[in-house]
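Recap from last week: sequence in, structure out.
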Amino acid sequence: MSFFRDRLEAYPRLADIEVARSAGYWPYYKTVESAAHARFTIEGTDYINFGSNNYLSLSYHPRVVEAAQQATSKYGTGVTGSRLLNGTLDLHLTLEHELAEFYGAPAALVFSTGYVANVATISGLLTRRDYAILDKDAHNSLLTGAQLSGAQMKRFAHNDLGRLERILDDLPADAGKCVIVDGVYSMGGETAPLAEMAALCHRYPNTFILDDEAHGVGVLGDRGLGAAEMYGCVSDMDLLTITFSKSLGSCGGALMGSPDAIELLKLDAAPLIFTASNTPGSIAAALESIRVLREDPTMPARLRANVQLFVSLLTERGVPVKSAESAIITIPLERRDEISAVVLARELLDAGVFVNPVVAPAVPKGLGSIRLSLMLDHTPAMLEEAAEVLLKVLADNDQLPVESAAVSRS
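Predicted structure tokens:
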């Protein structure tokens, strides 16, 4: 239909995308042909994998795979219905119970994806009479949930406690107010000042905080609860969401929080009520991943040791690295434009290292960066190899500070 062609041709960045595709630099929708190992296969070639969020390497853990297989044999490949109707298995209830216990929360609710967990929670709890107050770098799922809720939206500069306080000061005391943040921000890997934010929120009536720990669970804290555990304030989070598709090696999401909030969502949250339930295999995989993590609480610390080793290897070579607060490492570029980020990602791929180029809409239009996600199964040898590749490619593209580039060519 011409309607679709006209809309496609009107897409504001189509010309740039077509140029990137024709030149072989389009970095997205690659075909992966193996599990998300630390070294994995894309379109017939093996690469060191820094583009996955498989932080604890659990997606191919033997116990997790076996649990998914056994659940599929018992329950079939899908539940063919929503949680409301026939889609609540005993596996869901067990996972909810163990997640609530893991987080010390009064209740938990499982969703089909982490995205749906955020959209359903925010749109299901807030109305047009309420306020959604979001960090400007909040994940798209949090923003979408706020938009769907109809709540009046306020934004504050990234991690700006002063601006957040001024917003709360100006809002009516009797209105519902939800402050919405990421415990770990996915593009830069930095954390939110959760303890200070929670203390601020709880000074105001009818105000609560939602902490999305998608990139914190399994990574931060002594037991891997996330940034809230690292800052000693898990119990101060009124609502806490996670996804299963990163550290837990599966697909799905969950909310931990008040039993009243969860009951309200079960009754009235359209994204929960009208979405098909998780496949049995994905629920069983997430449940087994939680059990593996609880049995070996050293996993997050060992992952963080990999992060520190890699930062050290890069720093020794003069490669600038943004301060790493999580398992996400970002490399500040001398030229921060989107084209440079895409070109670097392609040249790193050609050299055997898979990374994510970060461009709009994930970051402001016109900016670009390189993001690497560390995994538990990255070996020291892999990290050494990758550090050398990064140094060479960055230097060849004049993306290093002058003194570092001179050292790399000496």
